[in-house]
Specification:
α5 crosses α6. The chain is 42% helix and 19% strand. The protein is an alpha/beta fold.
Length: 339
């Protein structure tokens, strides 16, 4: 079964053809990252315009690379939530038009479920497992009970980990995306040079909070400037990255122990962070747990993860009609409404 996946939730216009949820036949991505660097972050209007300009060519290239035509496609999967609403609408409307004109079933896919599915195309993992999802807009600990059954165990109370890394990087004067720049700079710094507070979250021992860490970076820089002291940005970057990763791993480890999970999966764009990958590997070695990480090329937004999750949604009977809409926010555990 071949699924065409379309992704346009942020600044990547992506399309992919995946066979039986696991075998990637093509994976095409067009990004407007260089334009957004000029503004230090994603500009929604620019992202939407670039999606509109790129999506037809990206889908055509994905079909060509997979040596397919629409006649070979069993279903079209598209990201419909969550994300930038204008960007999502470009992908949703294109997918609806394509599905309607070619008489192909349309499958709505939750973006974060897609990130989890990046591990299905990267390895042989199967549910059930415990998953840490870390991206620019999301930080979750989720019990993945089946391919389409999820339970949220932990969530962020404020900033997501990726958002905190990007904003801290900007505060340090690093190039956007700040999280990537911090990761590149950190090996040359001393991660114990600065001590950042460990956030305390009332009500849930599995939830995250990163706004305090982000504010601590700003206060550290401002205090140094007031004293006329020069700050070592590499040390600051390494220390902040350590603080973020410590929070993520501490909560993930506690959830895995408390809920008796021995199969650990990490997904989302921040999964590309070298410190997080290293600490996750150390944690799993300590406990004898199995760890699954997506290939680096599948950590960010891509169409292959949407096609993969779309396959599992499709075989569960999830379908959408031409009335499908896009949504800026939606919990990962919310059931899809089948039109």
């Amino acid at each position: 079964m071949k699924i065409l996946g379309i992704e346009s939730s942020c600044d990547e216009t992506a399309a992919s053809v995946v066979e039986d949820g696991r075998r990637v036949l093509s994976n095409i991505i067009a990004t407007s990252l260089e334009e957004h660097k000029l503004y230090g972050g994603v500009v929604p209007e620019i992202a939407s315009r670039r999606h509109a300009e790129s999506i037809s060519g990206v889908v055509k290239e994905a079909l060509g690379q997979a040596s397919c035509t629409l006649d070979d496609i069993d279903a079209i999967a598209v990201t419909y939530a969550p994300g930038l609403i204008g960007a999502l609408l470009v992908g949703v409307n294109f997918a609806k038009s394509l599905a309607l004109s070619a008489n192909i079933p349309l499958v709505p896919v939750h973006h974060i479920r897609g990130h989890i599915a990046s591990n299905y195309i990267s390895g042989d993992v199967e549910p059930p497992f415990l998953c840490l999802i870390v991206s620019g807009g999301h930080s979750h600990i989720v019990a993945v009970k089946d391919y389409t059954e999820f339970e949220i165990i932990g969530n962020t109370r404020d900033d997501a980990a990726g958002e905190a890394l990007d904003k801290a990087g900007r505060t340090m004067g690093l190039e956007y995306p700040g999280g990537v720049s911090i990761d590149r700079l950190s090996p040359s710094g001393n991660e114990n040079a600065f001590k950042f507070p460990k956030p305390r979250v009332s009500g849930s021992e599995y939830d995250f909070s990163f706004s305090g860490l982000k504010t601590s970076v700003l206060n550290t820089i401002n205090n140094s400037r007031q004293k006329g002291e020069e700050i070592n940005i590499a040390d600051l970057a390494a220390s902040f990255q350590k603080g973020v990763c410590d929070c993520l791993i501490t909560n993930l480890e506690k959830a895995a122990v408390d809920f008796n999970y021995k199969k650990i999966v990490i997904a989302g764009a921040v999964t590309a962070n070298s410190k997080l990958r290293s600490e996750a590997q150390k944690m799993c070695r300590r406990h004898g747990w199995s760890l699954y990480l997506p290939e680096l090329k599948y950590c960010g937004d891509n169409g292959a993860m949407i096609a993969s999750q779309g396959y599992y949604e499709f075989i569960q009977g999830v379908r959408a009609s031409e009335s499908l809409n896009a949504y800026a926010t939606m919990p990962i555990d919310k059931c899809y409404k089948t039109d």
